[in-house]
Amino acid sequence: MEIERKFTIKELPANLESYPSHHIEQGYLNAVPVVRIRKEDDEYYLTYKGSGMMAREETNLVLNRDAYYHLREKVDGRIISKRRYLIPLPHPSFQEGTGLPAPPADYELTIELDIFDPPFAPLIMAEVEFGSREAAEAFLPPSWFDEDVTYCKEYHNSYMALQT
Question: Catalytic residue at 28?
Fold first, then answer.
């Protein structure tokens, strides 16, 4: 199960290049349900995503290079290309009074900051994945995050790729 929230951002974090990153290229074979192929550096995947905006079933299958490029010729719409930075978020904040247990002192989330290549540039989005729907809903984003676009279809990669 994938449980994530998506945000636009106000500003890039300092020292962005100091964080690990991956180059991602992905295309969509189907929109409902989402069937996606992805190249992340030198690894290749076929992903199935069920319905939903914040929480949905997700299954990844490993592909080899040849299978990826064979399927790449069959994608609908445009290929999405982006640089994903993995930024640790130690001691994330959550709304009080939600009934969630206090996280352990060493609790940390990861911000996946995507900087899109053309034709989607200058779009930059941050995604944060959670272990539960309750944690996702109670999450208080860092101050450099801007609009919560979790429920805006226009910010979902599958939607973006299929717009011409």
Answer: yes
